[in-house]
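Worked example 3 (structure in, sequence out).
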């Protein structure tokens, strides 16, 4: 019973990190109609940004969370006009063009990282790395969970409590009608992609602190982001909460009671069943 309870707790804490990873990804799909294949590489770069910052400045890795957000927001804001141009060309398949472009971006990021930093895994040190609380709850995972959920709630608050957030939600529902109402969709798209890159970069810092980081880590988290967003409902941000916690539970349950190598099998099996039974996600609110 103690093992089961510990496994459930670890799964919920892990799911909290997947929330912040997938929330921006979901919004990018809803507003820009882009399935970003580079999401895992944004995670990887966020982890490495904190790692090298820690190596040179000798401070705790979590100090770099706001720095990574600001830096990646600026980077995403700068890159998005290129993506917008690619998907806005005269083509009948804009979503496919976005997928191809971000796949190329992912390959470029991963290849550059492998060339610059090699294949060896690294780790981030934090003041919570070796701490545990009651019920053997790892202090590091608890902090990551609280931070990730708080960041996601602030993000949702921004969407529902500000004029910019209102414009973003309008563009997510119908970009053409939003543009007719005076929303500058092109500029808004840069803000959305910047927020997404910033949040994903912060998720990379949290993941690098809990597990490890390497240039090859991106593919795993791209898969997880797809799973959470599709299971929660494409373009429906609140559904990310339920799907992310479920993913965390699947990962920990499979690792403890079966074998870690079966995690992806269980993930894809559940995703396959959901797509057959409820294509709009488990809450029935997605695209």
């Amino acid at each position: 019973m103690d093992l089961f309870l510990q496994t459930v707790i670890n799964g919920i804490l892990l799911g909290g990190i997947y929330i912040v990873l997938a929330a921006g990804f979901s919004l990018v799909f809803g507003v820009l109609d882009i399935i970003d294949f580079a999401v895992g590489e944004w995670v990887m770069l966020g982890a490495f940004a904190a790692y090298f910052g820690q190596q040179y400045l000798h401070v705790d890795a979590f100090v770099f969370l706001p720095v990574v957000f600001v830096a990646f927001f600026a980077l995403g804001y700068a890159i998005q006009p290129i993506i917008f141009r690619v998907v806005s060309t005269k083509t009948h398949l804009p979503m496919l063009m976005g997928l191809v472009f971000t796949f190329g971006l992912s390959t470029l990021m991963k290849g550059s990282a492998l060339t610059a930093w090699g294949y060896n895994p690294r780790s981030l040190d934090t003041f919570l790395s070796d701490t545990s609380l009651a019920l053997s709850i790892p202090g590091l995972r608890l902090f990551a969970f609280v931070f990730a959920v708080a960041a996601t709630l602030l993000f949702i608050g921004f969407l529902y409590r500000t004029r910019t957030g209102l414009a973003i939600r309008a563009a997510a529902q119908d970009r053409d009608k939003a543009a007719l109402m005076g929303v500058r969709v092109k500029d808004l798209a840069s803000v959305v992609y910047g927020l997404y890159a910033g949040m994903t970069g912060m998720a990379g810092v949290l993941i690098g602190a809990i597990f490890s980081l390497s240039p090859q880590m991106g593919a795993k988290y791209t898969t997880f982001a797809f799973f959470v967003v599709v299971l929660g409902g494409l373009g429906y941000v609140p559904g990310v909460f339920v799907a992310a916690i479920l993913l965390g539970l699947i990962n920990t349950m499979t690792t403890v009671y079966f074998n870690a190598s079966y995690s992806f099998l269980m993930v894809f099996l559940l995703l396959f069943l959901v797509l057959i039974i409820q294509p709009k996600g488990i809450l029935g609110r997605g695209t």
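Notes: The CA atoms of residues 46 and 263 lie 24 Å apart. Residues 2-277 form a domain with the ABC transporter involved in vitamin B12 uptake, BtuC fold (CATH 1.10.3470).
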